[in-house]
Amino acid sequence: ETGVTQSPTHLIKTRGQQVTLRCSSQSGHNTVSWYQQALGQGPQFIFQYYREEENGRGNFPPRFSGLQFPNYSSELNVNALELDDSALYLCASSFVGGTEAFFGQGTRLTVV
Amino acid sequence: GDSVTQMEGPVTLSEEAFLTINCTYTATGYPSLFWYVQYPGEGLQLLLKATKADDKGSNKGFEATYRKETTSFHLEKGSVQVSDSAVYFCALSYNYGGSQGNLIFGKGTKLSVKP
Asked: What is the mean pLDDT of chain A?
């Protein structure tokens, strides 16, 4: 058991709406990363947070944003949802000096 | 840029068959290499890793060797079980100041093992 938990597990939104996904990191981990996994594809890096600041970003538009809180939990916010945003969103936590990321079970987002 | 290429799936094998899933990478530096496994309806689990050339990662009967000369990290298992049925992802990342950077994944290879 990795200890990384995500909520909700499934979500259906309408195009144009906004969504917030949540992640609770494994105890002791101070770095969190978010990935988007489209159906039949490998996960794509969205961004990483360390000490509550963005610490690297993949090729995603600004309508994808995030927050990391003092307790190392995290949120992924997506504005102006598009149909192509439908995917499994994965959160992964790690600690500084670590060489392994631990993944949550993901949130399945469907945009209709 | 950096990338990972995996063999196309799905791969269907009988129980106790030998498994190879090919993975090659393109990298501008010297990354660490990983194999992750994703069981139906679940997130990713680290299967094994190698951090430098000629290292061999192993876990649960799976093995992969970091081959710098062929830029490969092929996954092998001598005798697969039905419980090995899953999607397998090859990935790379760089180590920044002792910490792992973001992972770059291949598209995944679905393995189905029949009794």
From this structure: 91
Between A31 and B110, residue with greater pLDDT: B110
Q: Are B109 and B7 in contact (CB under 8 A)?
A: yes
Sign of CA dihedral B106, A40, B112, A100: positive
Q: Which residues of A touch B95 (CB under 8 A)?
A: 99
- Reported as a single tens digit per residue, the pLDDT across B63-90 is 999 999 999 999 999 999 999 999 999 9
Cα–Cα distance measured from residue B94 to residue B99, given in angstroms and rounded to the nearest whole number: 8
Number of CB atoms found within 10 A of residue A51's CB: 11
Tally of CA atoms within 13 A in the half-sphere of A11 that contains its CB: 25
Closest chain B C-alpha to A67 CA, distance in angstroms = 17
Task: Report pLDDT for A1.
Answer: 46
Nearest by CB to residue A31, choosing from B36, B99, B107, is B99
What is the dihedral sign for C-alpha B112, B102, A92, A41? negative
Report CB contact under 8 Å: A99, B51.
yes
How far apart (Å, rounded) are the C-alpha atoms in residues A40 and A22? 23
